[in-house]
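Entry 14. Two folds queued back to back today. First construct below, sequence then structure tokens.
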Amino acid sequence: MEKMINNIDPSQPVLVTGAGGYLASWVCKILVEGGYTVRGTVRSLADASKYGHLMKIAKDGPGRLDFFEADLLKHDSFSRAMKGCALVIHTASPFMIKGVKNAQRQLVDPAVEGTKNILLTAAEVTGVQRVVLTSSVVATFNDAIEILDKPSGKISEADWNLIADLNYQPYNFSKTLAEKTAWAMTQEQQKWDLVTINPAFILGPALSGRTEGTSADFMSALLSGRMRLGAPDLYFGVVDVREAALAHILAGFTPEANGRYILCNDSYSMLEIAQIIARRYPNFALPKKLMPDWLMYMVGPMEGFNWRNLKNNLGYKPLFDNHRSVDLGVTYRNIEETIWDQVEQLSNPQ
């Protein structure tokens, strides 16, 4: 039977894990500006550089933001922060595509064990009614070529990634395994219900102003001139970080919200994104044409793409059914605003 969340008292605190992160920072901002009390977990309270940008948000109010130290791999680490929270928004999970040396330790363990620890704690403390988990569209598919097998022509929440493993697309594997673990644990208890948010590639400005991270790295690679001879013929579903943050909150406070929600504005190639940038920022050494596939096979491994990945993704455009997110209340802004806001921030770092 589908469990339904009760009406959450706005005076009850909301727990946001990984509060200093790219997505979670926006979740915290929207909640605090809405007058909510937020408990944000960070890896180390001693390292204010990771969450200092949130202190201004906390100061400006009108809501409240308190910080708690927590470790994804320690089961009892979240109990104090979670006690008394009716809603838990679990965003904390590593996002790494390149430079992965030990996929189990760097990706799978934090994603899966962290999810287990959050859900076990939610079952142990009193008051938790709903957990909103940040998953990913890569838990619904692995390679763009799979779009050829979709009768509707789009990937939907009914789909699962059945291909990724520790050796091939380990990040995708970590997100898929973490979400499947969460749904299995949900069926074993009756205290809280689960909603998952499955965003496409998140772009847009970062509240922290930091320029590291996969999203910023992607955009910086386009702006740096490294691709001026041509962009790979690769497509990505894209969503604005602000829409992604709002979707988590809507999923938390909408009583009838349930199941999985794909978040995707639309799908764009790297060249199309470069062309959008060029319309406002023509002075960057942006790619103006596609890189030939044969050349991509030569240089791809240096950029983290193996041949299997290239064969299954070059030239294929994955499309996503986002109607459930629209029904939830998400309104997608013009993708130009998303891209231009991020480029402006990267061009003028604070």
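Second construct, same run, same settings:
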Amino acid sequence: MNAHAFTALQSIVCQGLLSLLPKACVLAAMLLVLTQVLYPFCKCCTNYLQVVLGFSMALGQLVGAASVGFNAFSLESSKTTIGVVCLYMSNIINTVIYDTVYAHQDLQDDLKAGILSMAVAVQGRAKPTVFALSFVEIALLAAAGHYLDLGYEYFTLGMGGTAAELSFMLVTVRLDAPEDCMKWFARALHLSGIALSGGMLMDYWMFFIF
């Protein structure tokens, strides 16, 4: 009962906030809700539910972009569109990386129960897989910075900080230790978010100062 009441309250607040935003935000928000509803059921039919979660989580970026006048669904070919798409894809991969590390907490239990996840799919080769995904994420962040004409603040703190944090996690995380997986999921996810947001914010400030 409490869960239903909480969900209803969130829906009301969400509807109220969307009513204040441009109509272009509605499509991204509807897709976000739809993918969030589908996500729990993916555990029964695919090992790649982390990818579904990534697509869903990253849709918040498109809601934000639409709120300032950019419609990613217009299919307009421009540098800005390419940059936003690259940033969106990097966010998807970021979620896949961290949720795969997180899923290793329950790997043995999932194997016994027959629950599917990326951790199950890449067992035995998890670190090489996450390393490859990290490389793709950084490449997409670099492309996003290029097409969006972002400055050195973004590339040094945002992209560079994310790359450093991912590298350190890959070297030190012990995927066979559930408590270490949880620690890195919580710590690294916040650090990468701070680095990327900080780099963008600094670039924004410097644009107006100079």
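Quick look at the second one. The chain has nine helices and no strands. Residues 24-209 form one domain.
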